[in-house]
Amino acid sequence: SHKLFPNRPIILAGHDRGARVCHRLAVSNAHPPQDDSAKLHSYKLLGTVLLDIVPTLVQWQSFAHPMASVAYFHWPFLASPVAADMVEAYGGAKWTHLALDRICGDNAEGRKAMQSDDAWEVYESLHSKREAIEGSCADYASGCFDEPSLQEADQREDRKIQSPALVMWSKARLGKMHGGDLGSIWREWVRDASLLTAEGVGNDVGHYLPEEASTVIGTAIKEFVEKVSK
C-alpha cells in the first residue's frame, strides 16, 4: 500500500506471529537495512500495536525457567526438523485442537467467543493439510534460527522502535510467565518509555485476545489510533 499511496501514514497491528512481524517492521522502519530493501521501509509509521507477545529473544531466554519450558514446549518442538512428520502422524487437526484448548483462557464468555462461527473447526481443517503443517514449522524455525540473533544485534546496536507502541497481553497466561509487568520488558525495546502504552488484560482471558476480549482490545486500539493520528 505504501507504493500506491507513498504519503499515506501506516499503523501496524498484529497478534502473536503477526505481532512479531510488526515488531520487526517497526524496527526496520526506524533503522532501514543498508541494502536494496531499504526503500521498502520508507513509509511513515504512526504507531504499532503488539498483542500478547514479548520480544522473540526474551521468549527464548525465558526457557531458563522450568515452568516456561513446559508452557512453551511447542516453540523448540515445532522448530525441530522432525516436527512436521510428528504432527502429521499425531493428526494436524488433533494437534491444533489441543493447542487451542490449552492456550485459550478460562473465561467462559471468552472461550465461547473464540469458538463462535465454527472457528476451531476451521483452524483444525486448515492444519490437517501437510502444507499448513510445514508452513507453521518453518515459521517457528525462523523464530529460532533467524530472529533471536537479529534482535541481539538490534539491542547491541541500539536499534529500537522509535514510534508509539501499544502492547497488550493476557495477565493469566503470558503475563504470569513473565513476571506480570510486560511493560517493564518492552521499555527496553523502545527508544523512549513515553512512546509505550502497556496494558495487561485480566478476567482470565487467554492468548487469543482479539476473540476472547474483543471489546477491551477494540476500545484500546481505537483510542491508540485516534491518539497517534492527531
UniProtKB/TrEMBL annotation:
<dbReference type="InterPro" id="IPR029058">
    <property type="entry name" value="AB_hydrolase_fold"/>
</dbReference>
<protein>
    <submittedName>
        <fullName>Alpha/beta hydrolase</fullName>
    </submittedName>
</protein>
<dbReference type="GO" id="GO:0016787">
    <property type="term" value="F:hydrolase activity"/>
</dbReference>
<keyword id="KW-0378">Hydrolase</keyword>
